[in-house]
Amino acid sequence: MQYENLRLEIDNGIALLTISREKALNALNSQTILELRHFFSDTGRLNPEIKGVVLTGAGEKAFVAGADITEFSGLDSAQGAALAQRGQDVFFLIERFPKPVVAAVNGFALGGGCELAMACHIRVAGEKARFGQPEVNLGLIPGYGGTQRLIQYIGKGKALELLLTADMIDANEAHRLGLANYVVPAGEEVAKARELLLKIAGKAPLAIARVIECANAYFAEGVDGFAREVAAFGECCDTADFKEGAAAFVEKRKANFQGQ
Ligand code: CAA
Question: What does the alpha-carbon distance between residue 145 and residue 169 come to, in Å, rounded to a whole number?
Fold first, then answer.
């Protein structure tokens, strides 16, 4: 698929995926959602060269300022629900992506933008980043998982305050609340995200995928995360990477994992 709104650069095993609609503050229109779906179900998943993904927004002002509001006019309830479902499906693809995804939040992360950052596994915020769920200003609610994931990250009381007031919080407050993993000087978000991903790229890929899966199992309805962990631990024992990791420890050398 030819991407119109995503820019993909791969360097040293790390994909830098940039949402590039700078004039609209990188708002997620339906084409961008389609392209994100393609990357996280196809290109990014199947390309063995890609060990991790940095997701960011073009320009200095915004990560993503939300779903594209210009596409909302005239939506009826069925169309609105379908739009929310399409977005949620893509954000689940990101959350369940078997390789680590780090959001480099370089500015406004509002509405669908905050939800997109929350679907990633780790968030690095630049000091100019602003997070918020302002949908009630539009007579809407978050539709891409915001009412659920914000509670997962910062707890129900504070999440309800942000969801009900539509207030934005800055990077330091997001860090204090546990929404942002790191705050870095503006312009250094991608470098910090890459540094984290390069560290993870040295670990066993099949184990990394299972860590992500088990962490998600904690929140999945009807799934016993502890039981999934037991099964995944057993699966790891069957991998060549486990044998290599254990041998490297005994031989006091760095493990060379092949993802097998
Ligand atoms: N959708 C479409 N266009 C958007 C947009 C969005 N979410 N956010 C910004 N833009 C556009 C503006 O319309 C403007 O375009 P023009 O130059 O053609 O007029 C351009 O981006 C620059 O924006 P501003 O002039 O508004 O910039 P600002 O610095 O004055 O304000 C802002 C920045 C506070 C982020 C403001 O743009 C804003 O409030 N944006 C909307 C944020 C929002 O409500 N997001 C939630 C969307 S709904 C949603 O996401 C639902 C969901 O969960 C699925």
Answer: 18
Strand-pair partners of 16: 9, 54
What is the C-alpha end-to-end distance of the chain, expressed in Å?
A: 29
Report the distance separating Cα 105 and Cα 95, nearest Å.
16
179: closest CA among 149, 136, 209?
149
State whether the beta carbon of 168 lies less than 6 angstroms from ligand 1.
Answer: no
At CA 66, angle to CA 195 and CA 79, rounded to 5? 130
Distance between CA 238 and CA 234 in Å, rounded? 7
User: 132 CB less than 6 Å from ligand 1?
Assistant: no
175-217 tens-digit pLDDT: 999 999 999 999 999 999 999 999 999 999 999 999 999 999 9
Q: At what angle do helices 205-217 and 225-237 cross, to 10 degrees?
A: 170
Give which of 94, 156, 148 is closest to 123, Cα–Cα.
94
Does the Cβ of 100 fall within 6 Å of ligand 1? no
Q: Determine the residue of 5, 25, 128 to mutate for testing ligand 1's pocket, defined as the one with the most ligand atoms within 8 A of the Cβ atom.
A: 25
Is the beta carbon of 135 within 6 A of some atom in ligand 1? yes
Nearest Cα residue to atom 38 of ligand 1:
65
Give 228-256 pLDDT, tens digit per residue: 999 999 999 999 999 999 999 999 999 99
SS3 157: helix
